[in-house]
Design a protein that fits this description.
Length: about 400
């Protein structure tokens, strides 16, 4: 706790309504799952408000109160939905026990500067709550898909066995189907043939474009930059339709080269943006020094520039690879049955034959994307250290 911020207990009129509001939101989630969201809001607000008052005004023993609340929610969850609901109930109990005393003891001001007004404190935490709610809204579908991929049945819903955490309700059969089914393996092979080549082209053209546009003497470089990154702005369906009509006239529609070039076009903007961001802190006196020492432009690029901008290049390459590997709209327009990629096969599976193997493939793609994005973040931090923007 901050030595400058005195911690004092807050009045009932402050923390009880706040806990009740949080309880109303939790009640909305539970009530919606039980079939009545409005009733859940009312019960959640009333119940959590009363519990907050009892914990602080009657019991007044934080350790005992928090553990008791966890036990109460675990029992209630188990009675409502078995072991899975008991686990969720325990998490709810832990959060509301901590939240109640965090407000009651005034701990929310412990790490804030003392001169903030109540409105500023409210916005400080409201902003984080809003960001957290957006994050949960985006991540929840992924959290649902991943456990469903281990379903022992051919269903897209949680079975009673899964909710009871019964080992019989879980299986790897959908993953086995992915690795043994010739249709899925053919699609996987096409994706692995297309994405790396498209990434290589994106990195080559995007890096050269970024270096050229970073020169101050290039005319109309803002307009050129806007044109080059337009594939990120223009709706994908419009880009796909335009590529279809253009490629069909020059004989590239339905060919491997056409799909690779289309994906390269989609990946180039990511490379340009990441490399341009890396070049912002680049010391151009290094290239002039290399030229004075007799190095030609190619040698200067590979021996001086590339080592310093390499984190940005690799980051752009990873984004370009993810874009190509996950793209489905453009390949539907410019590809043929011979270039059926993994996302295309998933689209067909959803439209023609519903198979839980799609969930297994989606889980694999999510894991791969998380690994690649983790690498991007590590490279970003390394780039900042190299440019002196963050401590080593």
């Amino acid at each position: 706790m901050s030595a400058l911020t005195p911690i004092s207990r807050k009045p009932v009129s402050f923390y009880v309504p706040v806990v009740a509001a949080a309880g109303a939101f939790a009640g909305l989630l539970v009530g919606t799952a039980q079939g009545s969201g409005l009733l859940g809001i009312v019960i959640g607000a009333a119940l959590l408000g009363a519990i907050a008052w009892l914990l602080t005004q009657v019991l007044d023993n934080e350790k005992l109160g928090r553990w008791g609340l966890i036990a109460l929610f675990v029992i209630a969850g188990f009675l409502m939905g078995g072991i899975a609901a008991a686990v969720i109930g325990g998490l709810f109990g832990w959060f509301f026990g901590w939240f109640t005393y965090w407000l009651y003891e005034g701990r929310y001001r412990a790490h804030l500067v003392p001169y903030l007004t109540p409105g500023q404190v409210l916005w400080h935490y409201a902003f984080r709550v809003i960001c957290g709610a957006i994050f949960m809204f985006l991540i929840t579908p992924i959290l649902v898909v991943m456990p469903l991929s281990f379903n022992a049945e051919n269903f897209f819903t949680f079975t009673p066995e899964m909710l009871r955490f019964d080992p019989a309700g879980y299986s790897l059969k959908h993953y086995r189907d992915f690795f043994t089914n010739p249709d899925w393996q053919s699609a996987m092979r096409n994706s692995l043939l297309i994405a790396p080549v498209a990434t290589l082209l994106s990195v080559s053209f995007g890096t050269l474009a970024a270096i050229g546009l970073s020169q101050s003497h290039v005319p109309a470089r803002r307009a050129i930059m806007a044109i080059l990154i337009s594939p990120m702005i223009v709706p994908l369906i419009i880009s796909a339709a335009g590529m279809y009509f253009f490629y069909s006239r020059i004989g590239l529609q339905g060919t491997y080269l056409g799909v690779v070039l289309a994906h390269a076009v989609l990946g180039i903007p990511f490379v340009i943006i990441t490399v341009t961001a890396t070049l912002v802190g680049f010391d151009r006196s290094l290239t002039r020094a290399a030229a004075n020492m007799g190095a030609n432009p190619v040698t200067t690029f590979f021996r001086v520039q590339m080592p310093l901008i390499l984190p940005g290049v690799i980051s752009g390459a990873l984004f370009a690879f993810i874009t190509s590997f996950d793209e489905v709209v453009v390949v539907l327009f410019v590809g043929s049955a011979g270039q059926k990629t993994l996302p295309w096969q998933m689209f067909i599976g959803l439209r023609e034959q519903i198979s839980p193997t799609i969930l297994a493939v989606a889980t694999i793609l999510v894991v791969v994307s998380i690994c690649l994005l983790t690498m991007v973040e590590l490279l970003r931090r390394r780039s900042e250290r190299l440019r002196g923007m963050s401590p080593g």
